[in-house]
Amino acid sequence: MAKVLTSTEVEEVMAECRANGDVLEYTEGPESFCQIPSPLGWGYGRHLQLRPGLWLTVGDYQKRQVHVYKGPHRQIMPLTLVFYLSGGMRVDNSGLTTPQEEVAGKSYLHCLPNTFETEEYPAAQHTCAIWIRILPELIPMLNDRIDELPTRLRQAIEQPKQASLYYPTPITPAQQHVLQQILQWPYQGITRQLYLEGKVLELLALHFDQMLAPSARKALITRDIDRIYQARDILIQNMTHPPSLSELAKQVQLNERKLKEGFHQVFNTTVFGYLHNHRMEQARYLLQTGQLNIQETARWVGYASRSSFVVAFKKKFQAVPSQYLKGTG
After folding, report:
1. 190-215: per-residue pLDDT in tens?
2. 299 sits in which H/E element
3. Are 84 and 129 contacting, i.e. CB atoms less than 8 angstroms apart?
4. If DSSP codes are grouped into helix, strand and coil, which group holds residue 53?
5. Measured between alpha carbons, how far is 236 from 230 in angstroms, rounded to an integer?
6. 248 and 259 in contact (C-beta within 8 Å)?
7. What is the end-to-end Cα distance of the chain in Å, rounded?
8. Exposed, middle or buried by CB within 10 Å (0-12, 13-18, 19+), for 15?
9. Which of 43, 154, 201, 253 is the most exposed place for a label (fewest CB within 10 A)?
10. How many angstroms from the chain centroid is the CA of residue 45?
């Protein structure tokens, strides 16, 4: 049975490891990094203040012992949104009726001020998670349309001391894509900070959209679904010279708004996001099978410029086209 350490005991081990020079950690401006020392497990934690009231934390670790943290939440606390790509933990909060098992593949948005919480992190479990923390008063400064948000979330923003918010949802493919980009932790200095802030705001937008989906969207009728698939087929058939959004909407007898919303509901992407993904997948197939060279492939999928094609391909697959070209490497 794994040993259990309290937060005080964990801090005592950390202090001893620091005194012995066994902890790799640094702080550079708003960014900090700490590697978990061997007596406690392996992995790391990164923390970055993106702007006053907005923080990003990335953790990738495995603990040797069960770690238990107990303590009260403040009267006013940030909204916290955590995404578990692997692993998880157990939360027992006085503001919730039952303990919660937070698990991989889900995200959890919560704000539970004036409550007491016990967090239990299991031993010998690889956990990779991303936390976003944002002060409630910052959200109206980013966008003044908070009246469109779900009631529970809006109440947490407008009356943070009375907030009682705990909202689990599955991680969507679109969120997964952004999370992987954050894990790469690219660039340096202000460039990194601006890039990651953009990704954090994108994740917040995707999550709010996910919360709104059940109440704000009307289900597509069968006829409209058929027209969405018809629009998809038109895009594929005219991949090199696709119609404009307005032209496509006219061809399938939908208005532009319904066409855009329909693509999001059916394919979980935008109209031209779908086209771009199809072009890239076709290009990868052509390269892997050796049917065309890079220049020919670029033209086949609708790129007049080889360099523009290479940039788009690398952004999509994190590899240059030549790495997929049959007969190379």
Report:
1. 999 999 999 999 999 999 988 886 54
2. helix 294-300
3. yes
4. coil
5. 10
6. yes
7. 48
8. exposed
9. 253
10. 17
Taking 80 as the threshold, does the pLDDT of residue 50 lie above it?
Answer: yes
- Estimate to the nearest angstrom the gap between the alpha carbon of 58 and the chain centroid: 11
Question: Does residue 207 contact residue 169 with C-beta atoms inside 8 Å?
Answer: yes
> What is the CA angle 185-190-196, rounded to 5?
40
Rounded to 5 degrees, what are φ and ψ at 77? -135, 160
For residue 110 the two structure tokens come to 């919560």
- Assign 236 to helix, strand or coil: helix
Using H for helix, E for strand and C for coil, what is the string for 2-35? CCEEEHHHHHHHHHHHHHCCCCCEEEECCEEEEE
DSSP per position, 109-174: EEE-TT-EEEEEEPBS--EEEEEEEE-GGGHHHH-S-GGGS-HHHHHHHH-GGG--EEEEEEPPHH
Q: 319: which residues sit within 8 A by CB, 6+ positions away?
A: 313
What are the residues whose beta carbons fall under 8 Å from the beta carbon of 276, sequence distance 6 or more? 312, 316
User: Tokens 């995707």 map to which residue?
Assistant: 206
pTM for this entry: 0.67
Burial of residue 308 (CB within 10 Å: 0-12, 13-18, 19+) is exposed
- pLDDT score at 308: 92
Give me the amino acid identity at 323: Q
**CA–CA separation, 162 and 151 (whole Å):** 13
Q: What phi, psi does 26 have (nearest 5°)?
A: -160, 160
C-alpha–C-alpha distance, residues 245 and 251, integer Å: 10
Q: Residue 280 and residue 225: Cα distance in Å, rounded?
A: 25
